């Protein structure tokens, strides 16, 4: 039966985003180069198909192509692949888990169906049909408001008791009350939190970093997790200032997570394409150039 150890404070969880050619075909060579770069420079804890990886937009054919490339490359890099499943249809999610499972994947990331907010009964059914159906797999829940329901410690205590293989949660917020509530379920569930929430939680708990803006400088990101609380607070303020610049440029133009995350990875690989699958708008090369101008000296590679 899978276990659920606490996430070491040094653990960094990163996303691999999906590069598309100018004809919106999967760019496998660029994708695999990205995975190798992340594993070499930052962490071998990587997932595909959160919102940043456009898991909500890919067809089944694209899903299978990308999972195949990802699992092969992660094996080469001696990492454990985590695959996200995002869909309005629970049946589609189950089928995707089955196909990834056949390729040897045993770590999965779940997002709730988002057409309508699940009530408590529907929530229990959802986890029974995923965690309960695949007892030899570990599951991480992606807790975000795009799914129209943010889970609290109340739901997590019930779900964790029912499903030993529900082992982790990833999320982001700067609300200290929300973070404190989630941590009531630690260490039973591992928590991976974005920089703001991570800085808050590290004052009292062992949690992992769900890396976002800090990924622009892998060495500095590692210092972020190994530093003192005071150093993290100062670093997080700089990251928040950079994010404010990005959000200002994004106003009324682009809004999907992948538009931001592809721009962030482009700092490490300037040739990385920014385009998202239609109809969603991407950031631009001009956005990238303007962002590069505002990166503080201490965060430049």
Describe this protein's structure.
This protein is an alpha/beta fold and 301 residues long. The protein has one domain: Alpha-Beta Barrel (TIM Barrel), CATH 3.20.20. It is built from eleven helices and eight strands. The protein has helices at residues 28-41, 60-76, 90-102, 120-130, 153-162, 176-182, 195-201, 218-226, 229-250, 257-266, 285-294; strands at residues 12-15, 46-48, 82-85, 107-110, 138-142, 166-171, 190-193, 208-210. Strands 1-2-3-4-5-6-7-8 form an eight-stranded parallel β-barrel, surrounded by four helices. Helix 1 crosses helix 2 and helix 7 packs antiparallel against helix 9. The N and C termini lie far apart (42 Å).
Main features:
single chain, alpha/beta, TIM Barrel, eight-stranded parallel β-barrel, 11 helices, 8 strands
Succession of helices and strands: EHEHEHEHEHEHEHEHHHH
**Strand order within the widest beta sheet:** 1-2-3-4-5-6-7-8
Helix amount: 40-55%
Model regions low in confidence, pLDDT < 50 over at least 5 residues: none
The CATH topology assignment is TIM Barrel
Q: Per DSSP, what share of the residues sits in E-state strands of 2 or more residues?
A: 5-15%
Query: How many beta-strand runs?
Result: 8
The chain-level structural class is alpha/beta
Distance between the termini: 42 Å
Main beta sheet strand tally, sense and closure:
8 strands, parallel, barrel
Number of H/I helices: 11
Fourth-level CATH superfamily: Aldolase class I
Oligomer: single chain
The coarse silhouette is: globular
Which CATH-level-2 architecture? Alpha-Beta Barrel
CATH class: Alpha Beta
- Radius of gyration in whole Å, from Cα? 18 Å
Q: Tally the structural domains.
A: 1
Average pLDDT score: 95
């Amino acid at each position: 039966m899978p276990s659920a150890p606490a996430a070491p404070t040094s653990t960094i969880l990163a996303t691999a985003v999906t590069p598309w050619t100018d004809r919106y075909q999967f760019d496998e060579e660029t994708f695999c180069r990205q995975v190798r770069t992340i594993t070499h420079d930052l962490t071998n804890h990587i997932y595909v198909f959160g919102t940043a990886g456009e898991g909500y937009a890919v067809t089944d054919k694209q899903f299978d192509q990308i999972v195949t490339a990802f699992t092969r490359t992660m094996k080469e890099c001696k990492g454990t692949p985590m695959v996200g499943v995002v869909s309005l249809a629970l049946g589609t999610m189950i089928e995707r888990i089955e196909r990834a499972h056949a390729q040897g994947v045993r770590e999965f990331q779940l997002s709730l169906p988002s057409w309508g907010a699940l009530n408590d009964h529907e929530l229990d059914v959802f986890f029974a049909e995923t965690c309960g159906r695949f007892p030899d797999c570990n599951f991480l829940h992606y807790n975000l408001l795009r799914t129209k329901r943010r889970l609290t410690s109340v739901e997590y205590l019930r779900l964790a008791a029912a499903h030993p293989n529900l082992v982790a949660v990833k999320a982001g917020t700067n609300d200290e009350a929300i973070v404190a509530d989630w941590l009531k379920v630690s260490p039973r569930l591992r928590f991976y939190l974005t920089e703001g929430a991570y800085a808050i939680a590290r004052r009292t708990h062992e949690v992992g970093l769900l890396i976002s803006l800090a990924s622009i400088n892998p060495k500095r990101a590692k210092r972020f997790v190994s530093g003192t609380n005071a150093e993290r607070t100062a670093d997080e303020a700089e990251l928040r200032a950079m994010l404010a610049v990005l959000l200002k440029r994004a106003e009324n133009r682009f809004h999907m997570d992948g538009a931001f995350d592809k721009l962030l990875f482009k700092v490490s690989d300037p040739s990385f394409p920014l385009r998202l699958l239609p109809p969603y708008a991407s950031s631009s090369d001009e956005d990238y150039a303007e962002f590069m101008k505002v990166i503080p000296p201490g965060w430049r590679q």
